[in-house]
Write a structure and sequence with these properties.
Helices cover 60% and strands 0% of the residues. It is an all-alpha fold.
Length: 123
Amino acid sequence: MMTCAQKRLPSLRTLQPSFSNLPSVAASRKALAGGKYVTPLLAERLATLLDGSVQQAPHETLSGRELQVLRLVARGRSIKEVAAELALSEKTIGTYRTRISQKLGLSTNVELTRYALQHKLVD
């Protein structure tokens, strides 16, 4: 009987895939060692943000729900109407409205509407 070397066939060890280079394995090893793992894509995005070369529009800091509330307010809906449409309490919508105003630096519904129109957030 001939051995793998004699037949010029690779050994089983060389046929097995190497899993040590997979991102999930690297992330697990890093976490187990007490470190933090950042994917290459996230690292690139963080570097771009730290670089300051990309200016982010203020409305891009809004959560999905805040953006939804902003669009409805900009369409002329009252807090009560927005609450009914989203099946949330008026107090919750008021909280969203306050956060939106703080993040955008705008205080009135007219200013919010103007902002939404200028940035094409509403039709």
